[in-house]
User: What shape does this take?
Amino acid sequence: MSSHHSPIVLSSEITPRSMFEGRRAFLRDAGFALALAGVGGAALRPGDAHAKAFEGARKSPFSVNEPATPFKDVTTYNNFYEFGTGKDDPAERAHTLKPRPWTLSVEGECAKPKRWDLDELLKLAAVEERIYRMRCVEGWSMVIPWNGYPLAELLKRAEPNARAKYVEFTTLADPAQMPGIRTAVLDWPYVEGLRIDEAMHPLTLLTLGLYGDLLPNQNGAPVRVVVPWKYGFKSAKSIVRIRFTEQEPRTAWNKAIPREYGFYSNVNPAVDHPRWSQARERRIGEFGKRATLPFNGYGEQVAGLYTGMDLRKFF
Ligand SMILES: Nc1nc2c(c(=O)[nH]1)N[C@H]1C(S)=C(S)[C@@H](COP(=O)(O)O)O[C@H]1N2
Ligand SMILES: [Mo]
Assistant: This one.
């Protein structure tokens, strides 16, 4: 295994489990800068710096040309209620999540349901770097260099049938790994959903990494979705199941507070959330606020999905 120019070094090649965990502990302790310096990957031992899993990933033309939010902020200011409701809870507590082995099952209204192993997912399609603007309904935003490939690559292999109108995403709900689910803040498991054309849209990313390496636990390891034109909560983390459905899925946030969280949840500065204005946002790491863009700035690509829909009604 060469480390410097190989486009993708699969984690399966570099990690017996102990190394994987040692490596994560190392990243936690030593920080990312040292890992970036990258001493080659061949002689990996726990505690060594390593080749990043997605080093050299192809840069996507869908990336935004804005400075990325620092790694530190991306990985310490999180919403992941399975680990608590505080922004720093996931970074502090998500070490109990075991991202490997992992199975993601694709099922429901399709001809070819399948249980995908993580290593199969890592090899399914070329992993790209996609720098996306992300906006939380709470009024903050980040720019995150994700690593992944279009969710459509996975979905089309299941051969969805004519009844498949929606796609439902379900997060792991294991109290042994996720201390937050002992508290009934949401009706666990965390469930999100998209219309199938939204799920198949080339911007919708099956996400396996960020900043060139495997996803940190607090960001939804080992596999999540990222839907950049919607509020952050639509991008479900640590998913174990994707299901094609005929009916609109009941989503966790819609069940909890239906008046505040609709199914669509497209970023829309013209429609305020009852508790937070959606007109402006604070980019993490910056002072002051900036205007929020319709569809989070991705309108040119996605507005056509909603032609003729009243986006105040379908919020
Ligand atoms: N399973 C699960 N997925 C989740 C959440 C969560 O609490 N649980 N929070 C959502 C919200 S509100 C946001 S803003 C994003 C945050 O993703 P990040 O921490 O990687 O930036 O994750 C989304 N996905
Ligand atoms: Mo969010």
Remarks:
- The two ends are 48 Å apart (CA to CA).
